[in-house]
Amino acid sequence: MQHTQFNQGLLSFLQSSPTPFHATNSMRTELIGAGFVELFEEDNWVIEEGGQYFVTRNESSIIAFTTPQLTFNQTGWRMIGAHTDSPCLKLKPNAQVDRFGYHQLGVEVYGGVLLHTWLDRDLSIAGRVTVKTKKGEIVSRLIDFQDPIAVVPNLAIHLNRQANEGFSVNPQEEILPILCGIENAFDLHEVLAAQLTKQHADVSIDAILDFELSLYDTQPAALVGLHKEYICAARLDNLLSCYVGLQALLHSDFQRPSLLICTDHEEIGSLSACGANGPFLDDVLRRLTPNPEQFVQSIQRSMMVSADNAHALHPNYANKHDKHHAPAINKGAVIKVNANQRYATNSETASIYRDMAAEENYDVQCFVVRSDMACGSTIGPITSGEIGVPTIDIGLPTFGMHSIRELAGSQDAFGLYKVLTRFTQRETLMTR
């Protein structure tokens, strides 16, 4: 795959994935197109040597894997991990709010949102809706309005003279999107039913039962900068890593057992049935290696690359970084290190990654948070703690993490893809 083709695919993936449900469905579609077989957790599994499989949970998390051999206790796994969710605004169950002449939506903040970045943006709605059909069945379907149908207008500076001195946004009162004027009839369930009928002609709706819907920015992902050296988009954290991991798996040589896991709910701690702090990965791996001793052997012959975005040195806020660990955009992926295990990297997993990057002539950077600042975390320590797999935390340098629109390098993702492809093909990790 060429660099330009890779980035165009990335932009398309970002555009088609406004929610974790859509991101998982986008990956599902690409895996099926590549010949992967879909498994269902409620069925009996028949896993064959030389197979390619995937399974989803909650429609928002996915595990895909290859089985060139079935002796996983001898080969181990080459695992890549990422997450499908991003900070956003989610509709409350009783979302319809009518006040002061406007139809608005009540929203709940999901994750660590940079709230002010959601002001004055062209917003749409996407997610999952569960309905009862006229046949009496309960089914769920994904919807995406696509068009800009909502906006959260800023308050004029004339009414807030201190705005440029810094201000907070109250998530209960000041972030409710406006849909239309009160003179227009509006019923949320009727609007959802109409959108479902438009997008899913096979579903005859008797009633809307419930929904999980999010707002998102309709501005498309784009290559920006004087020389197109940046990718500017929503949800780079962490759909960027999902796409890189997926392409690495699809373009491996299928000689080593490899696995991609992209889970939901990382932004809120990962503790859910489909999150990294839940049983999803362990359930799948134990079905593939049910013998307890062989399971432990397979894990200790494995390694996970936990891929999540990293904080690039922002030229306007350089004092927020340790100057000796200040990654630059388009200078390579970042090894993330934390003495308190907020990242799972150790000297051995870092060395393996450095060796693979050197083989690809790909630069390596390192990030350590300032010693007087709190450190974020990833699925890396959670996964390593849950199943005991040696893990490294890496990420692509990013500006504006958790903004409605983030910025990363147009060179970095393709370079990481090449290293991770090599990782899926690596025969030996460490010599003991």
Biggest sheet layout? 9 strands, mixed
Give the oligomer, counting copies of the same chain as homo and different chains as hetero: single chain
Distance between the termini: 35 Å
Strand content: 25-35%
Average the pLDDT over all residues and give the rounded result: 95
Q: What structural class should be given to the helix and strand makeup?
A: alpha/beta
Number of strands: 20
In terms of per-residue confidence, which ranges show pLDDT below 50 for 5 or more consecutive residues? none
Order of helices and strands: HHEEEHEEEEEEHEEEHEHHEEEHEHEEEH
The count of helical stretches stands at: 10
Shape: globular
Task: Describe what this molecule looks like in 3D.
There is one protein chain. The protein is of the alpha/beta class and 432 residues long. It has 2 domains: 3-86 and 234-425, Aminopeptidase; 88-217, Aminopeptidase i, Domain 2. The chain is 26% helix and 28% strand. The chain has helices spanning 3-15, 20-33, 72-75, 188-199, 236-250, 280-288, 292-300, 347-359, 379-387, 412-425; strands at 37-39, 51-57, 61-67, 78-83, 88-99, 102-110, 123-133, 138-144, 178-181, 205-217, 222-224, 230-233, 258-263, 303-307, 310-311, 333-336, 364-367, 391-395, 397-399, 406-409. The strands form 4 sheets. It has a 9-stranded mixed β-sheet, sandwiched between helices. A 5-stranded mixed β-sheet has the order 11-12-20-19-15, with no helix packed on it. Helix 8 (347-359) packs across helix 10 (412-425). The two termini are 35 Å apart. This is M18 family aminopeptidase. Belongs to the peptidase M18 family. One of its GO terms (molecular function) is aminopeptidase activity.
